[in-house]
Amino acid sequence: MREFKCQSCGAGIHYEPGTDQLKCPFCGKENPIPKGEAGVEEQNLEEELARVGEEGVVGEVLVVPCEACGAKTTFPPNVTADKCAFCGSPLVTGKSLSQKKVQPHGILPFLVDSQKANQSFARWIGSRWFAPNDLKRHSKNPSNLKGVYTPYWTFDSQTDSPYTGERGDDYWTTEAVSVVRNGRQCIENRRVKHTRWTPTSGRVEHFFDDVLVPASNNLPRKYMEALEPWDLSQVVPYEESYLSGFRVESYSLPLPEGRGLAREKMAQEIRRLVERDIGGDHQRVFQIDTSYSQETFKHLLMPIWIDSYRYGEKVYRFLVNARTGEVQGERPWSVVKIVFAVLVAVAVLVLLLTVVGGN
Ligand SMILES: [Zn+2]
Ligand SMILES: [Zn+2]
Predict the structure, then answer these.
(1) What CATH number should be reported for the domain holding residue 26?
(2) How far apart are CA 22 and CA 137, in angstroms?
(3) Are residues 266 and 338 in the same domain?
(4) Residue 22 half-sphere exposure, CB side, CA atoms within 13 Å?
(5) pTM for this structure?
(6) pLDDT band at 201, cuts 50/70/90?
(7) Whose atoms come closest to the Cα of 24: which ligand?
(8) Which ligand neighbours the alpha carbon of 28 most closely?
(9) Distance 16 CA to ligand 1 centre (A)
(10) Mean local confidence (pLDDT), 332-341
(11) Measured distance CA(221)–CA(137) in Å, rounded
(12) Are residues 93 and 228 in the same domain?
């Protein structure tokens, strides 16, 4: 990762969350980040997939692999030893290796700074009963929180889906049934519901815009999804200045697999569209044959604050969406505190029973 220098005094400078500059902590000079005229361009997916494996199309990045969890991260140039953001294991940043990767096209710069993220963590853990005390202590140390740009793919596609199925329409009939009333046999009319099924076929066309797929396998997918939505309208063209002072996780989900997951997401939506197109009261779908065209993609980086902590044998993680401040996390339970609470409850119960029994 490139090192950025203050234009005025030459000191190393970092991106300041929520701004569009690198502010010098020494002389106070504000070094503006150059702004491109163009927006983030969509990339042709077929061309890129055809190129995968070719030399020279992708960029070269130096990543530090974590021996414990396998996460691959790029570090600011001045950092020599640190903890892995994903599992808390110690890392030697000197042991980097070179990898060929598709370069990011767009980035959402950090908006929430480390201080605000830390306050959210302290609030979150403080409001959790039975959280271990050492975790509460851990949350008070700001250096445990790591700012990481995590990788995403987004996909656009025009889809055309011919389908076959059946449409079910409900109708009612009146039927005479024999019932016993007050011991006497009599005939009553009852309304009965039926469904008439008719074969149907048709086609739905739909354009998908920015279907988002996390390209990281280092964080649990359910938490990544819970951190959404991202304000994709605010994505700016990739510019290395935004990375300074932060780590960048390199993607572990390759582009073809990313497309596979995006198509699964699209297929769910297409099925909903087909059912709406069939109409009626019930729908049966037999076959959908989707063809995809005008497929494009983008590789984006999204800002997340991560704190990984070990409790017992397990790794727990606390995540903050550094755009919205949305908090997600796993928390360990303190066995000591729970046992203590149960004992107190039992003691209270025994006391109450004694008092009631004494009267
Ligand atoms: Zn300076
Ligand atoms: Zn790790």
Answers:
(1) 2.20.70
(2) 32
(3) yes
(4) 23
(5) 0.80
(6) very high
(7) 1
(8) 1
(9) 14
(10) 71
(11) 28
(12) yes
